[in-house]
Amino acid sequence: MLPAHASPTQQSLRQKSFLEEVIQNTPGDCRLLSCIQCGTCGGSCPSGQDMDHTPRAIFAMISAGLRQEVLKSNTPWYCVSCYYCMVRCPQSVHITDIMYTLKRLAIKEKVYDDSKAPDFSKSFIEWVENYGRAFELGLMSMHLIKHNPFGVFKMAGMGMGMLTKGRLAFTPTRIRGIDSLKAILNKAKELEAAA
Ligand code: SF4
Ligand code: SF4
């Protein structure tokens, strides 16, 4: 940690190190340095409204060395790994992978502000681990009951509309080959623990 009176050169080194840390902790070439700040990712993101910073803003903050602000942000936790931003990014930045890196760093340092967003992410992963896909109705219901019980009534109208139009399923469905997926996930956990 640099002292508060650090020189601009020292600050610059500190900022560079956070950018480098994110790049080095992201598997493969994440292309973060290629980001042109176009904002396409934020405009495409289905969770954008819940994020306190858009992915574009998060990448600018990483470049600016705002380590604490980035790691405290709820943005990575609301990323549901849909990969839509990555499909649309003109620079092929590995946005979703960078979100995972930020989550790992935040967990390591226990710096996120509240448990709502991490809980959301944990529930999402549990559904995927058990069924091979997310179950939106179960995910949202469990999250709202735990963190915002009155929100259940607020969302009920929209939920019913989506259910009747067939945009939401009443029950979760398990993918074929769930055992193979579980074997892959277990192997990934083993490799992560050994790293
Ligand atoms: S879409 Fe790609 S290039 Fe544009 S702001 Fe997002 S990460 Fe950067
Ligand atoms: S992968 Fe994450 S950041 Fe990208 S559009 Fe989907 S939810 Fe948003």
Structural account:
With 195 residues, the protein is mostly helical. The chain has two domains: 1-113, Fumarate Reductase Iron-sulfur Protein, Chain B, domain 2 (Orthogonal Bundle), CATH 1.10.1060; 114-195, no CATH class. It is built from eleven helices and no strands. Helix 8 (116-131) packs antiparallel against helix 9 (136-147). 19% of the residues are buried. Mean pLDDT is 85; it is low at 1-6. The structure holds iron/sulfur cluster (2 copies). One iron/sulfur cluster binds next to helix 2, helix 6 and helix 7.
What hetero molecules are bound to the protein chains?
Answer: iron/sulfur cluster
The number of domains is 2
Structural class determined from secondary elements: mainly alpha
Spatial shape: globular
Q: Which series of helices and strands comes N to C?
A: HHHHHHHHHHH
Low-confidence segments, given as residue ranges, are: 1-6
Helix percentage range: 55-70%
Quaternary structure classification: single chain
Beta-strand level of the residues, as a percent range? Answer: under 5%
Radius of gyration: 19 Å
Number of helical segments with 4 or more residues: 11
CATH topology of the largest domain: Fumarate Reductase Iron-sulfur Protein, Chain B, domain 2
Assign the CATH architecture of the largest domain: Orthogonal Bundle
Q: What can be said about the biggest beta sheet?
A: none
Number of strands: 0
